[in-house]
Amino acid sequence: xxxxxxxxxxxxxxxxxxxxxxxxxxxxxxxxxxxxxxxxxxxxxxxxxxxxxxxxxxxxxxxxxxxxxxxxxxxxxxxxxxxxxxxxxxxxxxxxxxxxxxxxxxxxxxxxxxxxxxxxxxxxxxxxxxxxxxxxxxxxxxxxxxxxxxxxxxxxxxxxxxxxxxxxxxxxxxxxxxxxxxxxxxxxxxxxxxxxxxxxxxxxxxxxxxxxxxxxxxxxxxxxxxxxxxxxxxxxxxxxxxxxxxxxxxxxxxxxxxxxxxxxxxxxxxxxxxxxxxxxxxxxxxxxxxxxxxxxxxxxxxxxxxxxxxxxxxxxxxxxxxxxxxxxxxxxxxxxxxxxxxxxxxxxxxxxxxxxxxxxxxxxxxxxxxxxxxxxxxxxxxxxxxxxxxxxxxxxxxxxxxxxxxx
Length: 407
Ligand code: G3P
Ligand code: MG
Description:
Blueprint: H1 9-13, E1 52-56, E2 63-64, E3 67-68, H2 72-81, E4 86-89, H3 97-108, E5 117-118, E6 134-138, H4 144-152, E7 156-158, H5 160-166, H6 178-182, E8 198-201, H7 208-219, E9 250-253, E10 259-260, E11 268-269, H8 271-286, E12 293-295, H9 301-319, H10 321-325, E13 330-335, H11 338-347, E14 355-361, E15 382-384, H12 387-397
Bound molecules: SN-glycerol-3-phosphate (G3P) and magnesium ion (MG).
């Protein structure tokens, strides 16, 4: 069964992220690097505008669950002291950017702000054509992902919990958890029956059974109307045997990671695990029909383009006009997962002309000895012990710091 991935066209249309970092509080680190303007005495002059920057993965590079990884804090502080721009580019999510960045600032004991952060679902904010539609948002703890979607501007958000509490028979095996779900579920929209216009998985589903059932119901429905079955399903005279031929809602995933580096010593299944599980269900239920869907997150081109736009905006904030005269030429992507961080950086074709170099650390998902165990497409430009070593390697490679300078 072939899953046809289609680029997230909506991401390319809009220029800036709306809503995702609304109310970003740019702390002192945001102006320390700007040339002092007349009367603007406190900013020291920025002698050199670096033509390079960094993109750091989070899980397995900066943190293992809640525990900072050695050298992470000192590496970021060093870059901040040198006015070298960086962003945090994660396939994680499940909370608003404001909540996540506060969490990261506290755990790493370093000043960060939301303009630095790209989470798996952050680019969904750009799908403004869906903001007024009814969307299902699955995954994450409680109603947190619904809160994230609303913070992006989505006005009519429904969760699997809302559907379960309104129709407990939809997934009979959740009857032992109704107290949990009713603690955060909201009433369904008044219009009956419920019609869903798009399906999003924002973060790792906590109940694969419930979420798979709801996704199947909607993808087999007529026009996204819950509780219906399209009469076209299984009609061999139609394309795709009649499946997904009846204006069913499009399915958007935010993160393809099969594995991720948590507090457990071995990598744990990520949202990609759910996607493969659901693909198996869909294949069996439809006898091999295609599941058209979109997956963003690393290694997708769409997410890397979104991240570079965020990095360029960051640079403009830090340097103002001088930055514009010194174009961004190189980005060092530091990651722990060859299949997402390294593969994405290696494959990324920048529309802005920057070159991305991939650095693989040994503090997360990667468990090999040499970087060449990974398939060619996921082999890093450099294999290093940890993020501190990655930054040192990059500062030498960029010529910013000579080999002799402090090791
Ligand atoms: O759910 C988080 C996981 O998929 C990986 O996160 O930060 O390593 O991209 P990160
Ligand atoms: Mg990682």
